[in-house]
């Protein structure tokens, strides 16, 4: 089978396309013919060498494909079923624990940049009805992160106000899921053209953060001074202060990304005085994914796909990702 692999120490020029032996389905496993994967920042960190992995690691945490063999003892799956990967295959339900968040495909173990994978049947869920493989492959990391931030941690409800940052996969899914839940959404971006696209997806208020450096206060003003219920925080230290300014008293910040750095000044007095909860969110459990798939089906949500690349175009796909010219998800189809 054809795979993409990352040679140490990493870098886009260290991704090689090679042939490896096709795996077989062992006891409790499914053999899946992978048809699509999608790019996340975590995947880029792996291929760029920011996250150290074994030499020759097959990257990509997300995958969707067709079951071609069912291992001994597996129930609930049959040949021909469509299967969707999970980011944390050892996290069935409940809250995060160390043993539940190890085994990430494409990082701790080989991932989905391969034509075939053999993995435990428990590590897969079904696809939303009517979804293509490419559409489904956008869900396990980005969509589930947004789902957990909104529905599991912040537990938003109709009438709440949610602020999203930028136009990456998590942020767009957060916008779509929040609107489906009956929330008002304030979206930020540095691009007026991208803001207009967010408007077509349902964003109620738009802020260009280059034009409004104090965008957190602007967001609070848009709520009549009350503040937002939830900020889906993608930037990290460079944006956290404005996110807290945007929040209502007793509001919630779901800290998802560190695009502005891994450490920095924390507005401790502001967080304390506003009684804001800042909660780190790293994807979610298998049960969370099952519930998200059901919600997607009920609301007819479709992912926004920017572009598609073949498996041997994986380096070009990552180059497109880091150019930040995309809107929505970048996928691999093979």
UniProtKB/TrEMBL annotation:
Classify the source by domain of life.
Bacteria
Q: Which Pfam families match?
A: ADH_N, ADH_zinc_N
CDD domains xref list: MDR7
**Lyase keyword on record:** no
GO MF annotation terms: oxidoreductase activity
| Residue ranges constituting the Enoyl reductase (ER) domain according to the UniProt record | 10-332
Keywords assigned: Oxidoreductase
E.C. number(s) listed in UniProt: 1.1.1.-
Instruction: State the top-level EC class.
Output: oxidoreductase
Keyword Disulfide bond on entry: no
* PANTHER family from the UniProt entry: PTHR45033, ZINC-TYPE ALCOHOL DEHYDROGENASE-LIKE PROTEIN C1773.06C (PTHR45033:SF2)
Protein's name in the database: NAD(P)-dependent alcohol dehydrogenase
């Amino acid at each position: 089978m054809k795979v993409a692999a990352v040679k140490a120490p990493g870098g886009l020029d260290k991704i090689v396309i090679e042939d490896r032996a096709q795996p077989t389905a062992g006891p409790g496993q499914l053999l899946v013919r992978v048809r699509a994967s999608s790019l996340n920042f975590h995947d880029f960190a792996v291929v760029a060498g920011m996250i150290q992995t074994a030499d020759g690691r097959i990257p990509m945490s997300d995958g969707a494909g067709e079951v071609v063999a069912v291992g001994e003892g597996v129930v609930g799956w049959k040949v021909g079923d469509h299967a969707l990967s999970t980011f944390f295959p050892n996290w069935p339900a409940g809250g995060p624990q160390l043993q539940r968040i190890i085994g990430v495909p494409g990082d701790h173990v080989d991932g989905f940049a391969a034509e075939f994978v053999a993995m435990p049947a428990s590590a897969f869920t079904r696809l939303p009805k009517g979804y293509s493989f490419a559409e489904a492959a956008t869900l396990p990391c980005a969509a589930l992160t947004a789902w957990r931030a909104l529905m599991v941690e912040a537990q938003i409800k109709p009438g709440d106000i949610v602020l999203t940052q930028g136009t990456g996969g998590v942020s767009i899914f957060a916008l779509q899921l929040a609107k489906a839940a009956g929330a008002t959404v304030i979206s930020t971006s540095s691009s007026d053209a991208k803001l207009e696209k967010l408007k077509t997806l349902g964003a109620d208020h738009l802020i260009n953060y280059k034009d409004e450096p104090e965008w957190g206060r602007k967001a609070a003003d848009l709520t009549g001074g009350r503040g937002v219920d939830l900020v889906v925080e993608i930037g990290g230290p460079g944006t956290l202060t404005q996110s807290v300014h945007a929040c209502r008293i007793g509001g919630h910040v779901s800290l998802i990304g560190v695009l502005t750095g891994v450490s920095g000044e924390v507005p401790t007095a502001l967080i304390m005085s506003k009684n804001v909860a800042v909660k780190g969110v790293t994807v979610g459990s298998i049960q969370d994914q099952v519930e998200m798939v059901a919600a997607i089906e009920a609301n007819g949500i479709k992912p926004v796909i920017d572009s598609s690349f073949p498996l041997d175009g994986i380096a070009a796909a990552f180059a497109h990702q880091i150019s930040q010219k995309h809107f929505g998800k970048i996928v691999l189809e093979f």
